């Protein structure tokens, strides 16, 4: 009942409120990005959502134009030269994620859930095990159980396990707890940099081997 009705209602109400209150911040951010570097203000990227369905996530652009084609990293790292001057500021404050309230209103995302992975990284949807696919039973979120337990420094296999635990234990109380802890972590800018490779080659090989055995 909570996940089907009240969670969605909570998402809509909070998103409308947040977009209204934060509209001046959104406007100033958009202007700053446009002045700081060439390229669009909004960054759109294909991600995996509920039940593995692809959707286009919205973010304020924090990197230089065509950053994904520069180097071989899917995600940014500390002192990443691809990140613009304004990008460093909005990332530190997590302002770049605010446009995802629009994704919530569209029904692509929820406030609390798993962070939607890329369609190809750490691996494609069909490479997840059946147990790991439980993570996709709910909508992805702006924040979640995995984000308050290490965020970008946690290995993907561990992140997925935390996300699966959340699906199996979701409740209003748990969502409130995650939201409050997230606010504290954002204010402290905690765990907001990729400090190591979170998909080890051995880990990826093991994952593929598990999938092949089940096939």
Describe this protein's structure:
The protein is mainly α. It has seven helices and four strands, in the order ααββααββααα. The strands form two sheets. Strands 1-2 form a two-stranded antiparallel sheet. It has a two-stranded parallel ribbon with strand order 3-4. The longest helix has 20 residues. The radius of gyration is 17 Å and the shape is globular. The two termini are 34 Å apart. The C terminus is likely disordered.
Termini gap: 34 Å
The strands making up the biggest β-sheet line up spatially as 1-2
Total helical elements? 7
Q: In this structure, how is the largest beta sheet organized?
A: 2 strands, antiparallel
Strand content: 5-15%
The outline comes out as: globular
The value of Rg in angstroms is: 17 Å
Considering DSSP H and I runs of 4 or more, what fraction of the residues is helical? Answer: 40-55%
Order of helices and strands: HHEEHHEEHHH
* Overall residue-averaged pLDDT value: 86
The class by helix and strand makeup works out as: mainly alpha
Given as residue ranges, the uncertain stretches (5+ residues, pLDDT < 50) are 201-205, 207-215
Number of strands: 4
Short recap of the structure:
By secondary structure, the chain is mainly alpha-helical. It has seven helices and four strands.
Supply the key terms.
4 strands, disordered C terminus, 215 residues, two-stranded antiparallel sheet, mainly alpha, 9% strand, single chain
